[in-house]
Every structure is written in C-alpha cells, then in structure tokens.
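Before relying on records like the one below, remember that each one covers exactly one chain. Contacts with other chains, cofactors or solvent are not represented anywhere in the record.
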Amino acid sequence: MTLRRLFLITLVPCAAQVAHAQAARLDATADAGVRRAVEREVSAARLIGLPEGLLIAKANEGLAKRATPKRITDAVAALGKRLQVARDQLAPNPSEDEIAAGADALYVGVPAPILKKMRAAWPNRSLALPLGVLTELVAKGLPADRAARTVTDLMTRGATNVQLYALAQSVQGDVAAGWAPEAALDLRARGVMSLLPPAPAASAFTNPRRP
C-alpha cells in the first residue's frame, strides 16, 4: 500500500473498505496451481484474522506483471508471513491498515521489534500512516532506528498525520534533488518540531542513563 493511499485512507476511512473489497477476487487468468496456492494462503490468513484481500491483491499484481507461477506463490506466502509478524508486533488490536503498513515496513527492512516499540509509544493512535512514513524514509536510505526514532518523537510531540505525510514527501523531494537522506530528515524534522509543543516525556527509543 502506497503512502499516498494510506494518507487518503486517514482522510476517508471508508476508502479502506473499498480498497479491500476491490482486491477480494483472484484474477481469472490464474492457472490451477496458482489458484490452489493462493487459496491455501487465504484460508490460513482467514483462520488467524489476517487481511486476506491483501494476499489476493499480491497474486493479482504478479499475474498482471506476467510473473511465473512460482514467483507469484512465493510472493504471496512471504506476504502472509509478514502480515502475521506485523499483526503480532502491533498487538493487541491492530487494524487491517496497520497490519498492511507494518508488513510494508518489514518488506523494506524495518526490524520487527521497531513495530512493537512504536505501538508501545502510541497505543491508542492508528499507526498506519506513521508506519507508511517510516517505510518511505527507510526506502530512501535512512537507517530504520533513526527514522523510527524521528517519527515516534514527532508523534509524541503531537504531530498530525498531515504533518508526517508532508515530512515524508519533503524528504523524498530532497533526496531526489541530491540531498543526503539523513541531512534531509534532520532539516524537515526540525521544521515540524518547531511547530509543536515540548516533548512531555522521553521517547520509547531513548536509552535512559544508568547511575
């Protein structure tokens, strides 16, 4: 799921239901082997409460790209595993959009424990958009710990989804223009921080000093 789509879903929550419904049927061009493999993954996902529509969408994406049956089934199985890890790390009650965003973060190399830290830092706010921002930042070359710490600090200070989205878009533009990813993040994060109240407490990513 793209960051732009996540941002739109935060503005129009029913868009998530529409997106899931659109991906609920496997393309008719799938051969029997792919169909059986996808049905197995979907059944397993359904049993443990994972968003099965995402698995069908992944298979349809492979079919549209004319990928081999093995690549399609491997990609669907790998996504199923990421969805389960994301669901577990974002417990106790992550939404489908949070699970999907968590799986995307895992795909670009974000370590699973970071998802758990972000949930602990903000247990009562949807992490779908913040995780999308984290994914975008890591995809642009930022270390996962550094990007997660910045996003979490901004959330703790009260940054809105609009501000987080704008941060990611600005960093993306800066990197495309030749800036180093960390320099771009520093600049843009300071700009957002200047608009927010002081931090009430230490971030979940801060290591307290021991006496």
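Confidence is low (pLDDT under 50) at residues 14-18.
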